[in-house]
Design a protein that fits this description.
By secondary structure, the chain is mainly α. It has eleven helices and two strands, in the order H-H-H-H-H-H-H-E-E-H-H-H-H. A two-stranded antiparallel ribbon has the order 1-2. It starts with a helix and ends with a helix.
Length: 338
């Protein structure tokens, strides 16, 4: 039975890693470039209408464009059966761009969620306080944080010799080589907690409160409710499909390698985790295709909120003007009677 399981794993690795994964990368590269190009173009056209949140949307697009150009090289690598021919430095650059895309996207999606939360739950408190300058400062801080988190990954060895019979090829690891896997696991767990778990908790807290507000208040426009809930669904889809499986199975796979380096034997669950981790590596790249959906719904929601805010201002102005005008008229009338 163990021989059959090994053959199945080898068949899966040969077909998925060397055929399906390059196909997924190629698909994401083509569709992602087109979708993100359209989204950024639409964003720039509506720049003045959307306000401060467009800074985060623009940075989300930048995060995607940092990663998408590396996909053809990764497709070639896996299609050539893990033969990296582009050098150690470029291997590290491609992995670094992947990390910037992944954790930059998570960071800016979290910023968008917090801004949406404040606009819906505390609209009067934040009116006039959230500016474009503040959004730019927060964006710079997000990039700095993501870079600091990702930079140690560059110092781990990314390439190693892969001796297969008579051929000697170079592998481009997305984590690191076996010699350093124990330290890398500790780093990866801390990275997961700060770069993924904490933003996920913030996002869940924001939209959990927003959902409660929607349930309790009937004064919020129905269209705003529907579009906000759709955005929530897209974010849940992004995290459930792209981010959560990747982080779980990445760390489990690293832990399995640590056990092997210690006991010279893989745990019984290693083959299942290996297969799930390979699939999650394909799914995590889909965030560059799904992110444009966030552009679409955020722009729709902001347009609706802009209309509601404009109506509120017009109503307030009419009431103020009518009260201001009515006072002199009343005083004039009283003077005439006296």
């Amino acid at each position: 039975m163990s021989g059959i399981a090994t053959n199945k794993t080898s068949f899966f690795r040969s077909n998925y890693e060397h055929v399906t994964l390059p196909a997924v990368y190629t698909f994401v590269f083509i569709i992602g470039l087109g979708a993100n190009g359209w989204a950024v173009k639409s964003l720039l056209q509506k720049w003045k209408i959307l306000g401060h949140i467009n800074v985060f949307l623009l940075n989300l697009g930048v995060a995607n464009f940092l990663f998408l150009p590396t996909l053809p090289f990764l497709s070639a690598y896996y299609f050539m059966r893990n033969k990296w021919i582009f050098g150690d430095a470029f291997c590290k650059i491609t992995r670094f761009c992947f990390n910037l895309n992944l954790y930059g996207s998570i960071g800016f999606l979290t910023c968008i969620s917090v801004y949406r939360y404040l606009a819906i739950v505390h609209p009067m408190r934040v009116m006039g306080k959230i500016t474009v300058t503040l959004s730019v400062v927060i964006s710079v801080l997000v990039w700095l944080l993501v870079s600091v988190q990702s930079l140690p990954d560059m110092f781990y060895p990314k390439t190693s010799a892969n001796n297969t019979h008579t051929n000697r090829t170079e592998k481009c690891h997305h984590t690191t080589s076996t010699e350093y896997v124990e330290n890398y696991l500790k780093y990866s767990v801390g990275w997961t907690l700060t770069g993924f778990v904490m933003p996920l908790l913030i996002l869940l807290g924001c939209y959990g409160h927003v959902t409660l507000v929607f349930c309790r208040k009937n004064t919020i426009n129905k269209v705003v409710k529907q579009r906000s809930l759709r955005l929530l669904f897209i974010l849940i889809l992004l995290f459930s499909v792209c981010y959560i499986p990747y982080h779980i199975f990445k760390n489990l796979s690293l832990y399995s390698r640590v056990l092997f380096s210690t006991n010279k034997k893989y745990p019984s669950w290693d083959k299942r985790v290996f297969c799930a981790h390979q699939i999650s590596r394909g799914l995590v790249c889909l965030n560059s295709v799904l992110n444009p959906l966030v552009y679409l719904h955020v722009m729709d929601i902001l347009a609706q909120l802009q209309q509601l805010l404009q109506r509120f201002r017009q109503t307030f102005t009419r009431l103020f003007v009518s009260n201001y005008v009515s006072v002199p008229v009343a005083q004039t009338a009283n003077t005439a009677i006296s």
